[in-house]
Design a protein that fits this description.
The structure is a single chain. The chain has 182 residues and is α+β, with helices and mostly antiparallel strands. The chain is 24% helix and 34% strand.
């Protein structure tokens, strides 16, 4: 497993990603901005930014060995040339979620909601990376980053719709949906 990678998502007037839409799905939204930069590594600066969200990659959680093997077999990396569409979906879960034991969260995430199984159906077309933010004191617990080709946009919408209809989403108290292109 690679070491944790700090990542900052910095919205402002510069960056390779054009922000097409920022929509508050649940709770408060984020300030409008024109562009987004995804900066990997320590020391990311956000001077003059409309907003900046930080997260860190981490070990895989709530995942069984067979699920981890299946994900590894089909997941493609970020930065593919054809992936000119992206989505950043920051999420904060409720205290009720965090009050559950790890096995209880796993049961809701996969046995009831099928989060991992659903996600597998959309790989490798939709590349994804999860960033943890809760322990950094950020306003969101997770920053979910997705990249896909324009012809996969409908499949991505279906993926998001299915996840939002799951039992797990009852525990989401803030979600912002940011759509991008380059």
């Amino acid at each position: 497993m690679p070491p944790p990678l700090p990542v900052a998502f910095v919205a402002g007037d510069t960056g390779p990603w054009r922000i097409e839409k920022i929509a508050a799905y649940i709770g408060d939204g984020l300030a409008p901005a024109a562009r987004l930069a995804v900066i990997e590594g320590a020391g990311a600066m956000s001077v003059g930014a409309a907003w900046s969200l930080r997260g860190v990659t981490s070990n895989t959680r709530y995942t069984s060995r067979p699920e981890l093997t299946a994900l590894g077999a089909v997941q493609e990396g970020l930065g593919r040339v054809q992936a000119t569409r992206a989505a950043l979906i920051p999420i904060r879960k409720s205290e009720a979620w965090w009050s559950l034991a790890q096995d209880e969260r796993r049961a809701i995430l996969e046995e009831q909601s099928r989060h991992i199984a659903i996600g597998l159906e959309y790989l490798p077309a939709v590349a994804r990376r999860l960033h943890h933010s809760r322990d950094l004191g950020e306003p969101f617990d997770f920053l979910t980053w997705f990249e896909y080709a324009p012809e996969q946009a409908e499949a991505f919408e279906e993926l998001v719709r299915r996840l939002r209809q799951s039992e797990e989403w009852r525990y989401v108290e803030r979600e912002v949906d940011i759509r991008l292109s380059r």
